[in-house]
Amino acid sequence: MPHIIEPFNNTSFINASQNLREAHRFLILRANATIQELNRNDFQWGILLKRATVELNVGEIPRLIGKEFEKLAEVINIAATVERLIDAIDWFANQEENLNCSIQNCHPSTSDNPGENDLVISNQNGDVVIRCEVCDVVSNNAGANGKEKKDLLNLGCNEIVPNDGIKRYICTAPEFANALTSLNRPWENYPYRYECIMTNGPLSTHMLLIHPQ
After folding, report:
1. 65 exposure class (CB count in 10 Å sphere: 0-12, 13-18, 19+)
2. Does residue 1 sit within a domain?
């Protein structure tokens, strides 16, 4: 089954960032074209926008684009997630400890798949050193959509934080990061805690490194 932005494997940070930026720009152009067309009908604007489909089989199509069309709402969601993903990749690439690392797997727009992560980084020997789940949750509630639980499960941290030398991150928006790291949570009941690191990019993306409690 095709995806809006297809998964890819075994590439450098630079190539991944460039290809994702190309796909992201394309999604924005196609979504804006759809919105501009709908702006001509003020009376049904909300109804039409809610049901709008973005044509993705137009013009010079980037290599990572996998679908011919998609709902506008889903395109917006994927664009936001990919913006966080690009920020995370650029941040990982600039960490000295990742100098000889590369991207083993990346799933920019797939749903939660057992045993897989949105971003997996390996060292020059092929050993996985980083696993990361990426989301742009617009919520100040840690329980929003059960997203934290899903991400922790995908990262293998739902019961314990594995002691295997692999760093595990949740990459997310500042409001959701603040909710997840709130001092008001009953941390004594959780097997994990977060170290919050900002990428210092223009998006204020927060990287939550998961530690055992």
Report:
1. buried
2. no
